[in-house]
Amino acid sequence: MSAVKAVQYLLRQSVDLSALVGGRIHSGWIPQDETMPAVLIEEVDAVPEAYISAFDQPREWSTRVQITAIAGTYARVKIVLRTIESVLAYASGVFDGVEVRHMFPALVGPDQYDSTTGLHEQPIDFIVTHYR
What's the pTM value of the predicted model, to 2 decimals? Predict the structure, then answer.
């Protein structure tokens, strides 16, 4: 959860992303009645980095965080994704109390379209190396 917390903090601080989606940046789920465009942040998996002693607790973790842009047009999804990438790529520091060594883009997922809602979406994954 701490990686998601850091990602959400950075995205909420971005003036450029706020201009595109307002405050509609959610972790875990998006409210059913939410207007679009919006951003969804989810933790996919987390792996502790190697540590010396079996008795030590791992302090550094690599967490894959998926950020999904959802919008009414394909073009808007692409703009939101580029903005997310510009905010997060290679960020390091302390964000909302979470010490992050670095964030880097891992992959961009498939374009998707839901004909029942008329919404386009596409995820981008980041690896966040952080300390717990």
Answer: 0.91
